[in-house]
Every structure is written in C-alpha cells, then in structure tokens.
Request: fold
Amino acid sequence: MKGGIITMLTEPFMQRALLAALFLGPLCALLGVFVTARRMAFFSDTIAHAALAGIAIGLWLGLSDPTLPMVLFSLLVAAAILWLKQHTNLLTDTIMALLLSGSVALGLVILSVLKRTPGQIHSYLFGDILAVAPAEVGLAGALSIVSAVALFWFLSPLALLTAHEEMAYVSGVRVGAFNYLFILLVTCTVALSIRLLGIILVTSLIVIPPAAARNLSRNLRQQIIWSILLGGFGAVGGTMAAYHWDLPAGPAIVLTCIALFIITLPLAQGRGRLAKPAAA
Reply:
C-alpha cells in the first residue's frame, strides 16, 4: 500500500493519470448512453480489438508511439463495417465478428514476426493509465471537449435518431451524416481509451456507467448526467485505488464501475426496472 492522497497528487505521473481519467471516463460514459441505446456495444468492442492490428503496424514501422496508426486502423475498420453493411446482405454482428477476428489475427501475426513478447504489449491489452504521456493527456482533453460540444450541440436530433431512425429521417434529420459523425467519435474515443483500460476492458467503461445511470434516472437527460458523473467517478476512483493498493489500473477501474452498478441496483429494483416487460 502506498502513501496518502497528498502524496499521490504530488506525483507527476499520477497527475497525468488522473487528468486522463477525468477526461476519458465521462466521455466514454456519455457516448455509452447512445451506444447502449443503439445496441452498438459489440461495435465498440470490435473497434477496440481492431486497434491491436494498428498497434502492431505502428511497431512494425518502428514508431515508439503507435497511437496514430492505431486510430487510423480503427477508423478503417469502422468504415469497413459501414461499407459492408450497406453493400452486402451480411448481418451486422456477422460483419463485426469477421472484422474483429481478422484484425486480431493480423495483429498477432505481425507481433509474432516482430518477435514481440506478451509482456511488451501488456499495457495495450490491459491498460496502463499510470504511464500516460503529457501528449496523450492533451489529446484526451481535446477529444473530450470537441466530442462533448458536438454531442450537446446536436443532442435533440441525436436523441431522436437513437429512439427511432425512420422518424428522424422523416423529421429532416440528416441520418447518414449523424451516423458517420457518431461512429467517428466512438471510434476515436475507444482507440484513445485503450491506454486507460486496454483493448480487452475498454468497452466496459462505455457500457457499465450508462447501465448504472439507468438505474438512477427516469429520462434521457438524467441518464446522461448520471452517466457522466459515474463514469468520471469510476475512472478517477479506480485510478486512485490502483495507485493506493498497487493494483493494475485497468481492472481496478472496471471493478470500481461494477461496484457502482451494484450499489445502484436496489434503486432499479424499487422502480421495477429489473422486472420483465409484460407479454404482448
């Protein structure tokens, strides 16, 4: 067990880690409200696993920081999902499973050729927020600000699109443009949050806080507010717990979010949220 809060806050690496958690935790949770409502959790998981191939390509090119090829390859996979969905008869989950497995296989083959050991890519698989660089913190902050402004500026059409895509189209919402914008935000956020939680766990920060927020809220506005608060608390609290008890940061953040979800469950039960809907 390490020192107290004062000691923690004086450590430069902890200052960077807490800032990254404060930026990306609420952002992932905010996007997660719409991701879960649109049943796109598997999409975010596909993008996260596709990032492994981008990381491997970056290392193959000799880059010390593979963030750029990781983001670019994730965007390429997201574009491939959309293209295959529009131009083939394949089901969406089939397309994502195909691209997920193919990307992971490509990444593993490249890493094998490069003779990379599992320990060398451990931080990408399970996250290492305590090792984030100042440039990554700045990038996370810029992405958070831009994404939050875009989401709240277009909140009404995005909410309508999430609830009923056909109705949004009839109401004059530019469905195609909004879908591409939303997927762009989700893809960039997932790719950059890999440093926070790792490829394997990053989807949890998008799914768990909105699920906990749903237990506490009665409408979309309340769910957004609670999701942002719970996402920030889970990310920051998990980071502090990882430092204090010398735990791996990614799993500590996930377990903190799950604890928050469990705490909110009695409220969901009290409101009948867990009850099955009546049969038609």
Remarks:
- The CA atoms of residues 45 and 203 lie 6 Å apart.
- DSSP finds 14 helices and no strands in the chain.
- Residues 274-280 have pLDDT under 50 and may be disordered.
